[in-house]
Amino acid sequence: MTTALRLGPLTVETPVVLAPMAGITNAAYRRLCAEQGAGLYVCEMITSRGLVERDDTTLKMLVFDELETTRSVQLYGTDPVYVGKAVEILCGEYGVAHVDLNFGCPVPKVTRKGGGGALPWKRTLLGRILEHAVAAAAPYDVPVTMKTRKGLDDDHLTHLDAGRIAQESGCAAIALHGRTVAQAYSGQADWDAIAALVDHVDLPVLGNGDIWEAADALRMVEQTGAAGVVVGRGCLGRPWLFRDLAAAFAGDDVKTLPTLGEVATMMRRHAELLSEHMGEDRGCREFRKHVTWYLKGFAAGGEMRRSLAMISTLAELDVLLADLDPDEPFPLSALGTPRGRQGSPRERVVLPEGWLDDTDGTDWVLREDAAETTGG
Q1: What band does 257 get if pLDDT is binned at 50, 70 and 90?
Q2: Which pLDDT score, from 0 to 100, does residue 374 have?
Q3: Same domain, 228 and 276
């Protein structure tokens, strides 16, 4: 149905990208999703300064599965020089085939420093960062993309200018989350803004926001003209969504409705992969956060959910999973509904003092923490 996504020399046969999510899209989860369907699976966000300064926490996040054939990393940064150096390290030392830059994170501790979704307000600074990144990646023939939001709030929109700057800077694509920073993850995503950006630029636009089922992805592409989609919260506890997405973009109407027994098998596989990459103790602790998402809508009681969310070993997990009813059908009520964090819109976006005074930003000294691990 839909043609492959082309990012410079990189071809993604199914135009679907796994959105970087902090603490979620590690090597184990990317492997789990890739086992389900085709697409581009992006590492959780790392900081440019952390990478350049060889911060231990940052380097531990920069891990790839042995079967990860296309390495993709999202980078956070506010300093053009640091970003350029970080891109060079990713391409030259880690064999990364795609670099995405985060200009969409709505978390206050990021925006108060002018980073994430706040940075596109400073058009000149945004251009310099993108130019440094593209120049650093060019010798390796690695495409650079950026992800952003509509703007700070409805009175301070930036997405059209960001798209123009991305195109002028040589980016291979731009992904737009159809919400403002003030909205965070609340309310509905504005797909009309995605369509407006498609009309505004010549480079590929990827749409992000409110893709809960494969049909939503097809509808977004049809309504907006986007070249592909970015899927985040919709796949939480449902890595098989990528199977449905691959089928949908191939023209097949497939809706995977696993029984609780099949979900339990997926849960076990997820915990196993986490244990392989992190060791069993840490892997099982990391798995705990996924329990609620996997069991959303199922009849598993509160005691079972609490026990699963306290496992320390794979053996404990096996005992608990064996008590689930393997024949319980998938809860249809869980289809098409939001997953993960939503929250409420913010009364105001936390910004550096004087941030809105101009759109230049070249004289700003922005403090970037070496080990910032928040994504969005």
Answers
A1: very high
A2: 44
A3: no
Identity of residue 134: V
Instruction: Note whether 247 and 267 are same-domain residues.
Output: no
Q: Does residue 231 sit in helix, strand or coil?
A: strand
Question: Is residue 370, in this structure, part of any structural domain at all?
Answer: no
Mind listing the pLDDT tens digit for each residue in 103-159? Answer: 999 999 999 999 999 999 999 999 999 999 999 999 999 999 999 999 999 999 999
SS3 156: strand
Same domain assignment for residues 152 and 279 = no
Q: Do 112 and 179 lie in a common domain?
A: yes
Q: How many structural domains does the chain have?
A: 2
Residue 370 is predicted with a pLDDT of: 53
DSSP single-letter state for residue 43? E
Helices marked H in the chain? 27-34, 48-52, 56-61, 80-94, 108-111, 123-137, 159-169, 191-200, 214-224, 241-249, 260-278, 280-287, 291-294, 302-308, 314-321
The pTM for the full model equals 0.94
Q: Give CA–CA dist 158/179, Å, rounded.
A: 11
Instruction: Indicate which residues carry an active-site annotation.
Output: 105
Query: What is the model's pLDDT at position 316?
Result: 97
Closest CA to 216 of 237, 196, 188: 188
DSSP secondary structure code for residue 326 in this structure: T
Q: How far does the chain reach from its first CA to its final CA, in angstroms?
A: 30
DSSP state of 150: S
